[in-house]
């Protein structure tokens, strides 16, 4: 066993008093490909960013080659040989490959940038990596996503990187490009560079990685050799958690009625062949990884990025939804994933936000209908100084109640909830769950998108799992065995059919 | 929402107090320097002079609160006055048709500003800078430096006449009545669903769009109102000051200064239309004060520049301070809504 290249011990980190990493350990050996996996919110990104010098850890030590190091800034990490390729590339689109690689530290000759040397050095780095067909003089704007990723890796190599961490490197790549990345990673291994590989895709982890470290809820589960693991083992390690009795039961009298929302063959640039029906009184949960198309589906139904093919029906009537306004007219409401940028006008009062949909879409009856707002806010147990308080001063949970009130006041037929409990406290979460049950009992059709599997399992009647813009499976929540439910969903979401062959 | 006097008083005292205090202080100084200014007659003359700017400020308020700018209004006022003089040329019977034509023209300019900004996605500061230059060029081209024609007496009545023989004040200017009607209208408009949507669009246009608002239409309506009110301002100013090639020059910036002084936040989403009107009165009062102190009129632009910077800086500091105090006191809400069974 070789001496570890990188050791992270007891790493802790809190944001605004919320502990997101509870003393995590990680060791990476020279020349190995090391996978870092876990569910959304497990703490992978935070750990990566601490390694990259974007965040500093509250406690714990990092050693590189046995020397303790502490990176206060990404540039310090790079100088020490630790480079990171984030999902969002840091490239200037109108500069060439060579200019991007040497940005800010261009080789100089007599005080001027030595372009010839810069290009030659970049070419040499590309050759070392075995990359052909990418010119050092090409403008980054004209490159494909895969090629831009190569530029990021070349940039890392130009810093003499000894460890490169990659955040979901295949998330935006097509199948052929993934093969290219595989080759590149093999080449990095040969050069003795270690790769820390963050991915949701289990197949890649088994294809590429030597060892796997699993994080869950900000804590280390364990690190093991990939060869000793099966996909089942890995999935169980990632999710293994029991569902608590936190979710309120279905209200008596909740009955499944007629189909309220039906999509047949729905598709656009992000989605393909979506067939879906949601009945009155039904809660359909949507599970899947980030970027699997759940939010895109919500946006398509709501007319933000509409379906370009397929048919949508609301209560049996064909609905052509090309804008949010038309969606509202058909009685569809959307609680967006991002409350602050998409859900609220933060500088306006609670009352103004709560009646915004009425004002915007039904101006003639807005005044009359808005009389229901105070009662609605009370029934949601909103905590505020008064309804003229600006919503930016409310807590996340109370802000979400205002968003919910805004939709409830138009009495929608179909309610789409995209991550309705993200970033809100436990009490408010419970209030949202109770409300969802009440809405279902009142005959609304509910689409519940959530990254928290327990939430989907605990609330939904039926679970739709999405992957790469298509529906990869549908599960009847009632028939789902409780102990393997999360694993079954994760398997569908990641494209690994546990048990059965792929 | 309460429409009571106490509601309005509390609103004046809460967020927009500064401009009202400033207005009172400037008036106090003006009165102290020249007690004669407090005479009803002088005050009415002041109102006539300030009325066009108040109308422009109201129009500018609609546009700014939606997150945009309208730089074209000064040139629009100028073009309207010059063209009206050309068309009327002293012919009384042409007054009404020309006024109607002017309003149509103002509405068209506003529609163009709005549609180019919202549908072609040209930033409004560029769109309206463009219309400003086009109209400015049109004035130069039409007048060749010296406007021809003249306005009719009936046309000029709105800006300089009024209801005569009113006890105490002598004459009640039409300009005052117009400003009052438009001001009250603007207050009601901002309470209407359109006004509420407008301010939400200015605050967060994505959230407004996701709530079903037609952002392009709401903003275009604001530009159109601005064009309409600039026409009104043109009629008043033509009547009050007469026809020159310089009419309206720089008024867009004076109007923006007035609105900003009224505490309306550039970028949209915040501000009260009454405070914008008070801002216009304050700017006009300041110019009056300069006159009394015999400050050369050439200093005005510099003063205006300093005011606009100071007002925005003050608003930013004040807002940050208020945000801090509210966050600190947040954990103990004074009032809690509880479900009633």
UniProtKB/TrEMBL annotation, chain A:
What SMART domains would the database entry show? AAA
- Signal peptide feature range: none
What membrane topology is annotated for this entry? Answer: Peripheral membrane protein
Q: Give the keywords, sorted.
A: ATP-binding, Cell membrane, Membrane, Nucleotide-binding, Repeat, Translocase, Transport
The residues covered by the ABC transporter domain are: 6-242, 254-493
Query: Which cell locations does it reside in?
Result: Cell membrane
Q: Name one Pfam family in it.
A: ABC_tran
The main location class comes to membrane
Q: Which GO terms describe its cellular component?
A: plasma membrane
User: Mind listing the GO molecular function terms for this protein?
Assistant: ATP binding; ATP hydrolysis activity
Q: What is this protein called?
A: Ribose transport system ATP-binding protein
Species of the source = Stackebrandtia albiflava
UniProtKB/TrEMBL annotation, chain B:
State whether keyword Transmembrane applies. Answer: yes
**What is this protein called in UniProt?**
Ribose transport system permease protein
User: What does UniProt give as GO cellular component?
Assistant: plasma membrane
Q: Which organism is it from?
A: Stackebrandtia albiflava
Q: Where in the cell is it found?
A: Cell membrane
User: Membrane-spanning residues where?
Assistant: 12-33, 45-64, 71-88, 94-115, 122-142, 172-190, 216-241, 247-266, 273-293, 299-317
- Keyword Transmembrane helix tagged: yes
What Pfam families does the database record attribute to this sequence?
Answer: BPD_transp_2
Its main subcellular localisation, reduced to a broad class, is membrane
Topology within the bilayer: Multi-pass membrane protein
InterPro entries in UniProt = ABC_transp_permease
Q: Which UniProt keywords apply?
A: Cell membrane, Membrane, Transmembrane, Transmembrane helix
Please provide, alphabetically and separated by semicolons, the GO molecular function terms listed in this UniProt record.
Answer: transmembrane transporter activity
């Amino acid at each position: 066993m070789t001496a570890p290249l990188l050791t992270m011990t007891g790493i802790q980190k809190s944001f605004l008093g919320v502990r997101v990493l509870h003393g995590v350990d990680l060791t990476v050996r020279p020349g190995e490909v090391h996978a870092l996996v876990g569910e959304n919110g497990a703490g992978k990104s935070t750990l990566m960013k601490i390694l990259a010098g974007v965040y500093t850890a509250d406690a714990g030590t990092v050693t590189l080659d046995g020397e303790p190091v502490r990176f206060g800034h990404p540039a310090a990490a790079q100088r020490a040989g630790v480079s990171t390729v984030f999902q969002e590339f840091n490239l200037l689109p109108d500069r060439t490959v060579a200019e991007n690689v040497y940005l800010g530290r261009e080789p100089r000759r007599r005080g001027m940038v030595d372009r010839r040397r810069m290009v030659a050095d970049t070419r040499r780095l590309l050759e070392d990596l075995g990359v052909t067909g990418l010119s050092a003089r090409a403008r980054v704007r004209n490159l494909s996503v895969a090629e831009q990723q190569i530029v990021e890796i070349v940039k890392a190599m130009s810093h003499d990187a000894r460890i490169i961490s990659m955040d979901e490197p295949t998330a935006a790549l097509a199948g052929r490009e993934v093969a290219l990345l595989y080759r590149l990673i093999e080449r990095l291994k040969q050069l003795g560079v270690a790769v820390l590989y963050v991915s949701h895709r289990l197949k890649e982890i088994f294809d590429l990685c030597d060892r796997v470290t699993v994080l869950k809820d900000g804590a280390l589960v364990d690190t093991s050799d990939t060869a000793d693991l099966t996909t089942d083992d890995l999935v169980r390690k990632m999710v293994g958690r029991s569902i608590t009795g936190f979710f309120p039961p279905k209200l008596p009298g909740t009955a499944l009625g007629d189909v309220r929302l039906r999509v047949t063959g729905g598709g656009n640039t992000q989605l393909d062949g979506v067939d879906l029906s949601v009945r009155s009184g039904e809660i359909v949960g949507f599970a899947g990884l980030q970027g699997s198309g759940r939010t895109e589906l919500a946006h398509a139904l709501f007319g933000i990025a509409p379906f370009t093919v397929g048919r949508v029906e609301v209560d049996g009537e064909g609905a052509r939804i090309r804008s949010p306004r038309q969606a509202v007219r058909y009685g569809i409401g959307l609680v967006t994933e991002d409350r602050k940028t998409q859900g609220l006008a933060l500088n306006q009062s609670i009352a103004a936000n709560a009646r915004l949909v009425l004002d915007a879409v039904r101006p003639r009856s807005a005044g009359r209908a808005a009389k229901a707002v105070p009662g609605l806010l009370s029934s949601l147990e909103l905590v505020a100084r008064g309804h003229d308080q600006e919503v930016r001063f409310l807590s996340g949970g109370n802000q979400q109640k205002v968003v919910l009130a805004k939709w409830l006041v138009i009495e929608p037929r179909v309610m789409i909830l995209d991550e309705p409990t993200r970033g809100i406290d436990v009490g408010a979460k419970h209030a949202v769950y109770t409300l969802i049950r009440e809405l279902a009992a009142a005959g609304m059709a509910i689409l519940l998108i959530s990254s928290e599997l327990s939430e989907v399992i605990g609330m939904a009647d039926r679970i739709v799992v999405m992957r790469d813009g298509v529906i990869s499976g549908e599960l009847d929540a009632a028939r789902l065995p409780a102990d393997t439910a999360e694993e079954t969903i994760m398997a569908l979401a990641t494209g690994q059919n546990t048990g059965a062959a792929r | 929402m309460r429409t009571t006097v106490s509601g309005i008083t509390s609103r004046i005292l809460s967020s927009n107090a500064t401009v009202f205090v400033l207005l009172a202080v400037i008036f106090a100084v003006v009165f102290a320097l020249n007690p004669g200014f407090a005479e009803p007659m002088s005050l009415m003359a002041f109102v006539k002079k300030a009325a066009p700017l108040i109308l422009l400020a109201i129009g500018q308020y609609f546009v700014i609160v939606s997150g945009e700018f309208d730089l074209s209004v000064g040139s629009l006022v100028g073009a309207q006055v010059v063209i009206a003089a050309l068309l009327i040329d002293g012919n009384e019977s042409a007054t009404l048709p020309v006024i109607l034509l002017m309003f149509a023209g103002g509405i068209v300019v506003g529609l163009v500003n709005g549609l180019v900004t919202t549908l072609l996605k040209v930033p409004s500061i560029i769109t309206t800078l463009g219309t400003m230059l086009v109209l400015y060029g049109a004035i130069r081209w039409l007048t060749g430096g010296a406007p021809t024609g003249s306005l009719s007496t009936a046309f000029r009545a709105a800006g300089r006449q009024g209801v005569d023989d009113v006890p105490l004040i002598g004459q009640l200017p039409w300009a005052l009545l117009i400003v009052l009607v438009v001001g009250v209208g603007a207050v009601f408009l901002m309470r209407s669903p359109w006004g509420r949507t407008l301010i939400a669009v200015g605050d967060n246009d994505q959230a407004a769009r996701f709530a079903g608002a037609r952002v392009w239409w709401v903003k275009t309506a604001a530009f159109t109102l601005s064009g309409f009110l600039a026409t009104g301002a043109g009629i008043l100013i033509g009547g009050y000051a007469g026809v020159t090639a310089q009419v309206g020059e720089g008024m867009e910036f004076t109007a923006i200064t007035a609105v900003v002084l009224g505490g309306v936040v550039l970028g949209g989403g915040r501000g009260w239309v009454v405070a914008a009107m008070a801002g216009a009165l304050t700017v006009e009062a300041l110019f009056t004060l300069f006159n009394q102190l015999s400050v050369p009129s050439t200093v005005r632009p510099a003063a205006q520049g300093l005011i606009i910077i100071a007002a925005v800086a003050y608003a930013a500091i004040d807002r940050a301070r208020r945000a801090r105090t509210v966050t600190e006191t947040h954990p103990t809400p004074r009032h809690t809504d509880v479900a009633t069974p």
